Amino acid sequence: MSPRDLLWKGRLNLAVALVSVYGVLFALGCGGWAQVRVPTPPSVSPEEVGVASWYGHPYHGRQAANGKIYDMGKLTAAHRTLPFGTRVRVYNLENDRIVDVEITDRGPFVDGRIIDLSHTAARNLGMQRAGIVRVRIEILPIPSVVSGDSFAVQVGAFRIRANAERLRAEMEQRYGFAIVVPRQGSPVLWRVVTGRCRNPEAAQTLARQIRSDETDRLGPAFVQRLDD
Q: Among the listed ranges 142-151, 159-168, 192-201, 205-214, which one has the minimum average pLDDT value?
């Protein structure tokens, strides 16, 4: 085979490989190209059982993920996938106390936890001293229509932005879409999220793929709503 034939064969193999990678991403419902979005009800479970934590300082007075200032004296909470403004009832399974909160932030980004409560919400549940407690959460009303829903996978968090940008570039090359999202604090934490999926199930599939591809190189892969 001539050198020219070898060159064309190599280019053809590369093109086929790229088409296969992007085909997998679109089969998952995750991609880096523009997609037509049809308003659909959010794919979230009306109830969850797991571990709750709470947060106060140094986040008090700083901007939350919804763009507003976090006030630990209000009845609010952070959740990774529920839309901002969702009302949630939280049941402390250890003492039967109940509190209603509004989702205003993203988190908790700790494996095994499902919700991060404000200080006042934690105090109402009688859990501020323990720090964590097992809870059941119930969505109070589920929004009937949410337009432009998309979900992504957090693959890392860094105190140095340059490190986050390096991982973002790598994830963008592998999975078609990745951004760096700042988490306000002292210092600011730079979170890397990748993928743009139409529903949480597709994002969970992508998260499993990332865990398989990256083995122990990255930390936990968390699914979260991709907020505009």
A: 142-151
Phi, psi for 116 (deg, rounded to 5): -120, 115
Domain 25-37+146-225 indexed as CATH 3.30.70.1070: yes
State pLDDT tens for residues 22-37: 454 555 567 654 443 4
User: What are the structural domain ranges in the chain?
Assistant: 25-37+146-225, 47-139
Q: Which helix (H) or strand (E) holds 223?
A: strand 222-225
pTM metric for this prediction = 0.58
* Chain centroid, CA 4 distance in Å: 47
- For residue 133, the tally of other CB atoms under 10 A from its CB is 21
Label the pairing between strands 98-105 and 76-78.
parallel
Q: Where are the beta strands (DSSP E) in 73-150?
A: 76-78, 87-92, 98-105, 113-118, 132-139
- Taking the CA atoms of the chain, what radius of gyration do you get in angstroms? 20
Classified by CATH at the fold level, domain 47-139 comes out as Barwin-like endoglucanases (2.40.40)
- The tens digit of pLDDT for each residue in 87-122 reads 999 999 999 899 999 999 999 989 899 999 999 999
What is the mean pLDDT of the segment spanning 171-193? Answer: 86
